[in-house]
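How it folds:
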Amino acid sequence: MRNIRLLWQIFPSYVIIIMAVLLGVGWHLTGAIEEFYLGQTAADLEARARLVTPQVAAALEAGDLAGLDQLCKGFGAAADARFTVVLPSGTVVGDSVEDPARMENHASRVEVAAGLAGRVAHSTRYSRTLQEDMMYVAVPVAIDARIIGTVRAARALTAIDSALKNLYRQVPIGGLVALVLAALASFWVSRRISRPLEAMRHGALGFSQGRLDCKLTVAGSMEVCALARAMNLMAEQLDDRIRTIMEQRNEQQAVLASMVEGVLALDMEERVLHFNQAAAQFLGVDPDKLQGQPIAEVARKADLQRFIARTLKEPDPIEGEIVLQDDAARYLQAHGTVLRDAEQQEIGVLIVLHDVTRLRRLENIRRDFVANVSHELKTPITAIKASVETLLDGAAISPADSEKFLRIVAKQADRLNAIIDDLLALSRIEQNDDVSGMVLEVQTLEPALRSALQSCEVAAADKQITLHLVCDAELQARINAPLLEQAVINLVDNAIKYSEGQSSVQVEAEVEDDMVKIRVQDRGRGIAREHLPRLFERFYRVDKARSRRQGGTGLGLAIVKHIVQAHSGTVTVSSEPGAGSVFTILLP
């Protein structure tokens, strides 16, 4: 149904009511005036008939019928009325207009019958004699209570009809004028009533659009003023409540946005109610496009779907682990609970996700470290034990064999010592107290790099590998020279070990984008791409058998990484099988 403005609801109603009142008043007024005119005419005719009754009675008593007719004609000319005298038999014996002899018997006329019966009566009807509407009034003529006839006075209604017709024309005109004036007055009154309400409507529309600081004008009738005050008070209270809710919402969003845990809330149909930034990052989705979307459509994660289904079924909080297989495996510790409203009705679920990928990786590293340390220590210990047992046996062992076994024991002991030294060095570098206490000084870089190459010259000469240094003698960096020298030694030593003979290893240092870049490049066999991410882990080896034969402990690159990190720098590697490797250290 189409809504109509209040003005056009009130104004037409007023106009219709006024029109109905005017029509009723006009109808009643014209009827009353007509009745008044007819009543006045009847009274006048009755009075005139009574005036002539004594003379008519005398003529009837004397039997002077001819004189009676002349008497009627004289009365009619003088009184502007028609007089008729009728005997009890209905015979007309006198008439001021017509010849009585030509007139029919009037006993059947209503007013005549009443007059002959002794009553005064009147009637209105069309006169065939005069061809117009007439009013007739009959008065009985009696002598000594004996009815001897009746006198009827009559008058044409032409004047009354003319007056009434004129009245009928004037009343509608007056009514129309009154209606127009009343309509204007009604419009003005309706406007006064609707204008404050229209202003309130605009104000309420402003409230609905959030403009709660706008105030409604308090003017008009008592009821309108009371309504305006109530709406202003309501707006103030709503503004206060909305501000409070917005502050609480902003605080809640700030807390959720700053959480490292992912938080997502779903309704009972698994549509998204809330999704914080951490959860969006975990699942690789855009949080701004998730509201109201089914979680199965925006995050196609089987483990997550199963966990949500479990949470919906369980009345108590649950927890579990979710594994997301994207570019790299991500492990999430999930906690789920059912959301309930104030009436304890279930309205959805809340899922909290904590990224434990680093913990899982550290656990794997710890397990690998323990396994690798055990293996690395067990190998020389086994060799030492076997050699010692052979020597202790003493049966048929020549001095040359004894020396051979003793050399094995010495070599494996040196290997054990190297492993332990590297572990201790790595431990010292990793300890926060030692790192924070490590002295970094701005000094030239070339001496530390040249010293590192000199330390590797013997090993390089054994394989006829040429060592090159490219570094500006004035290049400075904030370093701990001994530690940085050790890192470069480890990189150059690795390059020598895994390079073919008669090749070269080059060390370059330069400034690039406000960073000091140190590159160690070899022409060796290179490293397969799948090994690069784990190359700096402890005891990680690309070729385990060859590494042990080369005398490596598996900790050299791990030591390099931690030394560089102690300098607030980074170390990376790029390599292709058969094209050599490039290790790059970036220092601030």
Observations:
- The chain has four domains: 1-209, 259-360, 361-433, 441-587.
- The first strand starts at residue 82 and ends at 86.
- Residues 432-436, 545-551 have pLDDT under 50 and may be disordered.
- The two ends are 75 Å apart (CA to CA).
